[in-house]
Design brief:
It contains two helices and five strands, in the order ββαβββα. The protein is of the alpha+beta class. The longest helix is centred in the middle third of the chain and has 9 residues, at about 30-40. The structure holds zinc ion.
Amino acid sequence: MCKQGNTVKVEVHHVGEIRLVDVDVDKCIARIIKALNEGGVATEGCCCGHGKVTGHITLTDGRILGIYPNRKVFLKHCPVDLD
Ligand SMILES: [Zn+2]
């Protein structure tokens, strides 16, 4: 996770008026945000959590994707059988 303020510009889609906008995105998740938007999954906001809280990516359809630093932390929050 990167420090707060360590951002890069990423072009994202906003559904509705469908526009492209360059926004500041946390550097460590910038490639994920870019890939989602280039793949047609519009994002509304995001934060990597900066190692303090669970990171998230908010999609324009209202769903929220969690970002966990690793499998162990994910399973602590979401005990599921991944195997
Ligand atoms: Zn980060």
